[in-house]
Design brief:
Helix 4 runs antiparallel to helix 7. The chain contains eleven helices and 14 strands. The protein has a six-stranded mixed β-sheet with strand order 8-7-6-9-11-10, with helices on one face. Strands 2-1-12-13-14 form a five-stranded parallel β-sheet. Helices cover 37% and strands 20% of the residues. 45% of the residues are buried.
């Protein structure tokens, strides 16, 4: 069997639109694990939001969270943490204030906001993490955050993403996992760098990895993996750069990849097999 590790994005990929893992995806992942394939999650979500899915799937590998800025296992051990420099964080907050955008500040895997608006409610519905509402986000930005996110209209965020990318060259990585989100993390953090770190730690080869995602923050991981897969619901640019395009997230797209590239070859990995 060629592929030995599976890296899965969550939203728009492994999760249906109702934010659950379908039975067919669960069954396929379980069958792949029974053959010796290792599985991890690679998500823009905060660790506290991703861990419930890792528990549901009984994932043994460390999780790649905050788009690669925090790699942490289910037992709570931190394998890598890259914090957004405070200077960059203050720049993000200033730009957000100029354009009146909702801001999520993630510090020590906790969520801080300064308004209880529609975006606060939307993020809670997705993450199930209660936010800590403060009067002034400047007051909590005394420690470097895990990440920051701006939420708002597609048009305004398209403009602000360009502005931040120019202001924060070499000072932050600006990416997006949703047209209504702009995410800002440490300049060396990405899903690709997180996956590369995990492979080095495990002694795995890149060509043995399948990475599946649906958005721009998945592109570097898709291009890096031995088999980079885009969901059918991914933007055209993401699908164009993938090695393979599977079904959509509501139609068992992840299960299809596992069935086609792993289970169809069905041979159980031995402990001595070269990774």
């Amino acid at each position: 069997m060629r592929y030995h590790l599976l890296a899965l994005d969550l939203d728009g990929t492994l999760l249906d639109d109702d934010k659950t893992i379908s039975a067919c995806n669960q069954d396929a992942i379980r069958a792949a694990k029974d053959l010796g394939v290792m599985v991890t999650l690679s998500t823009g979500r905060m660790y506290r939001s991703a861990i419930r899915f890792a528990n549901e799937l009984k994932i043994e590998l460390p999780l790649i969270t905050y788009n690669g800025a925090l790699i942490k296992d289910r037992a709570g051990s931190v394998h890598r943490e890259l914090l957004l420099p405070l200077e960059s964080a203050h720049t993000v907050l200033a730009v957000a204030r100029e354009y009146d955008l909702h801001v999520n500040v993630f510090i020590a895997d906790d969520l801080f906001v300064d308004r209880n608006d529609v975006w606060t409610k939307r993020y809670y519905q997705t993450s199930r993490i209660p936010p800590r509402i403060v009067s002034n986000l400047q007051s909590v930005l005394t420690a470097a955050p895990n990440a920051m996110a701006l939420l708002g209209s597609k048009e305004k965020l398209r403009l602000v993403r360009t502005i931040l990318a120019e202001k924060l060259i070499d000072k932050a990585h600006v990416t997006t996992s949703d047209p209504h989100f702009v995410e800002i993390i440490h300049p060396n953090a990405s899903k690709q760098s997180g996956l590369a770190y995990l492979l080095r730690e495990l002694g795995f080869k890149t060509e043995r990895v399948i990475a599946i995602g649906d958005n721009y923050n998945d592109l570097d991981m898709i291009n890096y993996a031995g088999l980079g897969v885009a969901m059918a619901n991914a933007p055209e640019e993401v699908r164009a750069q993938a090695d393979y395009v599977t079904g959509n997230n509501n139609n068992g797209g992840v299960a299809h990849v596992i069935n086609k590239f792993i289970l169809a070859h069905g041979k159980k990995l031995s402990q001595s097999q070269e990774w």
